[in-house]
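Dear U.,

For the methods section draft, I wanted the exact inputs and outputs in one place so we can describe them consistently. I've listed the two proteins in the order they'll appear in the manuscript figures. Please don't edit the token lines directly; just add comments below if something needs changing.

First protein:
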Amino acid sequence: MKTITLSDAQSLPIWQRPVTLLFLMAIALPLSFSTWLALLNNFVIEVAQFDGSDIGWLHTVREIPGFLAVGVILVILFVREQVLALLSLTLLGVATAVTAWFPTVGGIMFVTLFSSIGFHYYETVNQSLQLQWLPKDQAPKVLGWLIAAGSAATLVAYTLIVLTWESLGLSYNTVFMASGGLTLLIVAYCAIGFRQFESPNPQVKKFILRRRYWLYYALQFMAGARRQIFVVFVGFMMVERFGFEVHEITALYLVNYVATILLAPVFGHAVARFGERRTLAFEYIGLILVFLAYGGIYWFGWGVLLACVLYVLDHLFFSLALALKTYFQKIADPGDIAPTAAVAFTINHIAAVFLPALLGYLWLVSPGAVFILAAMMAAISLGLALMIPRHPVPGYETIFARGLAAPAE
């Protein structure tokens, strides 16, 4: 496939430009991953009789490829990032399609591992491509629209599940096959319909750790630890404590994605208007309150309606994490984006390798304590976010670096 520079690509029809490819990939990912996530808790409880410890171990296995995302640096020595993104989506689509073929604890963990390799390698290179292909002045707004596009795709999938799961008597295998298959169809179009886009800044293809990126690394680490509690235990709580069925948990997800479609572009504009520091501080304060309220559900017997409201708010607050991407884009050397995306993804998943399994045992003793721990993590993130300058640039990455020249390391 012929390569073309980003500047020359702007003369192509809109359906062949880099931003269109980003939107199509943003749609392809959640068709598989979000559908898998919506069905997961019911599937593992009904089919494999998972308990809190089992679900913790499953997510630990799922996060191992995220921890190893730094391997992307080696892969892009031989494979272009754009090609690797499509290959990763292919692996995710195939693994999702065959999930129901492995209805045992070991089988589910096996296919989840391969699904996760596709998901995490795609997310790593996709973040790199977004920051390379989007101009800094437009990135927050476009990232907001990309989140909205992915949410719209998920909304369509979830609406179909809610409307047809009971009325048509759908099986897990049917839904997994359909969602994985749709992802593969979009990937096939992306592979055929787009040229290879050449970024203006060659990427460093080696492992790098820059001292001046330390705050970005710290924020990524805390975001990964905190996210695990939401992904692993909140949906599990809705099924285990409140007895949600597939169409009910999917309906809750639907509300999430309608809200995200409406608000994600607003979040992008908010980052552009108020800056990363204020936006992230708002997110973390909100998450502290949400996680404390989750704990109250177990300790004070608060009901299902509050749990549903908290779930939606939780999901929306996490959408504000796009500010982390734009913060790094503003402070990074252009050639550092790809290797740092891989390193940051690995840092983001350090806690993910051990935290779900350990907290799975804590869940058996005190589910509320799991959420209090998450609130403490959000408080640490808040303290870190307040160290971001109002206008971060290379050499002024934190409030402590004012007036210093940008160092090489």
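Second protein (the one for the lower panel):
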Amino acid sequence: MVGPGSLVIIGVVALLIFGPKKLPELGKAAGSTLREFKNATKGLADDDDDSKNKDAK
């Protein structure tokens, strides 16, 4: 499991690599990517449920 010390080290390394100006942009891009992925997988799960319901009838 990732502890608070590990998160601090990861944050410092990311800050050194990308810089303070680029880091918020990367966070925003990562958030939108995760949101898209969640919506896409939700659609797949809904499609699966619909096909199972049709087979049961």
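Candidate sentences for the figure legend, describing the second protein: Residues 15 and 22 are 9 Å apart (CA to CA). The chain has a mean pLDDT of 85.

Thanks,
Y.
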